Amino acid sequence: MRKEKGRLTIKQYADAPLTRPIGRSESFGTEKDIMYYVKNKDNEDLGDIEYYKDWKCWIFEPEISIIFSADCLREIVKFLDELHMKG
Description:
alpha+beta
């Protein structure tokens, strides 16, 4: 799934599943190993979208010290909602 709308690009990593962040490997599920990256219009990394097993839902994990406008946050939430509806 790829979404380019407004200010963001959300695209599936080509090599998913990826190694999970240190100390969090047990928190992520194996049944939904697809990961998405989120980039701005200048192709800068903003964060990742992945399935969080403990909460049984998709989450957005932003890069450190990234700021977002309300419009960008709405785009991310809309994409998360679409993933939740897919099951």
